[in-house]
Amino acid sequence: MSNSFIYDIFRKWLFLTNIAVFPTCFVINAPFGRFTPSKDSWFLVDGIKSWILMELVSPAMFIYAYTTSPLSYYDPPLPSWTSPQSILASLFLIHYTNRAILSPLRTPSRSKSHLIVPLSGVLFNTMNGFLMGSYLSSPYARMFLNPTYTFQRPSFYIGLGLWFVGFVGNIVHDEILLDIRRNAKSKGKGKAGQDDKNKKADASASEKEHYAIPYGLLYKYVSYPNYFCEWTEWFGFALAAAPFPIELSLSAVVKLILSLLSVNGLKSIAFGSPKGFAPSLTPPWVFFFAEVLAMLPRAYNGHIWYKRRFGDRYPKERKAVVPFLL
Asked: Taking every annotated instance into account, which residue ranges of this chain make up the domain 3-oxo-5-alpha-steroid 4-dehydrogenase C-terminal (predicted)?
């Protein structure tokens, strides 16, 4: 089995699988965090350790693919440190250094996770890490990210700016949640119904973990600003790293929708050659769409959970994840 075939298989099914499970995720919550099963089970694992292990898979696979360039017909030298590919590779690794190591180590506590969550995470990260590393080291990316062209392309700088804003926003909003847990841990156990205006949260105790109403920054508008910021981050990355996956014209969009609604179109998508599947849909865009499809249902269900748990105390003007819209 060739590397290019594995690349196309991963690219196709990482995208299609997330589309397929998207509706289901509104009904069945991934069993971790606030949705961890309440009963003890042999299948429950340490939340922090399992998170670190599954997230480290992505940068490991990325480094392997980026340094071996599996889509090349020869062994090319690594791009220079100042090349667009190296800049983007650094951003990917910076994100996962925070996500896989720094963030969980800053977490004072985390609910246990069902074993299916880290197993699914390992599969996702294996595919995504391989795809992203393979793409950035590929001949196609070398042409598209040619320094002469790329450093004159506005979308490259806009994308980098969006990545930075999203990355910082993700960390800052995560810190607000972590401060709630730190404060609860320092007090031994949080008490429900705190009215102290100097506090960032109204506290409520949980059997498994301490939860509260977060306040500050984008929490004024949405329940999951960390998700929104992560989407912003990876949209910016994709914008900088790859061409937009579809032609931005009405006719192209209509054609795409009609193909998705027809039986023959769906058969072609599901059973057609992986290489022929959406050839302009590159891994940076696959990752962005996969993130939205996986996280949107959880944000919606988590938003409903917040409102049920805290009732009238929960800010009514807050949306789930996209300010003013959703």
From this structure: 115-186, 206-243, 283-326
For residue 106, give its domain range: 3-34+46-190+213-245+280-313
Q: Rounded mean pLDDT of 108-131?
A: 90
Q: Who has greater pLDDT, 323 or 268?
A: 323
Query: DSSP E strands: which ranges in 97-244?
Result: 113-114, 202-204, 211-213
pLDDT (tens digit per residue) in 211-235: 889 999 999 999 999 999 999 999 9
Output the six-digit token pair for 192: 């429900």
Map tokens 């690794």 to a residue: 93
CB count within 10 Å of CB 309 equals 16
CA distance 326 to 318: 9
Write down the pTM of the prediction: 0.86
151-158 contacts, C-beta under 8 A, 24 or more apart: 151/84, 155/239, 155/240, 156/84, 156/239, 156/240, 157/240, 158/236, 158/239, 158/240
For residue 326, being part of any structural domain is answered with no
In this structure, what token pair is assigned to residue 39? 């009963």
Nearest Cα neighbor of 228 from 213, 244, 217, 239 is: 217
Domain count within the chain = 1
Compute the distance between CA of residue 101 and CA of residue 196 in angstroms, rounded to an integer: 33
d(CA 163, CA 263): 38
Q: Which of 183, 156, 172, 135 is nearest to 284 (CA)?
A: 135
Flag whether 185 is in a domain: yes
Instruction: For residue range 22-56, list pLDDT tens digits in order.
Output: 999 888 776 666 666 666 777 888 888 999 999 99
Residue 293: CB atoms within 10 Å? 17
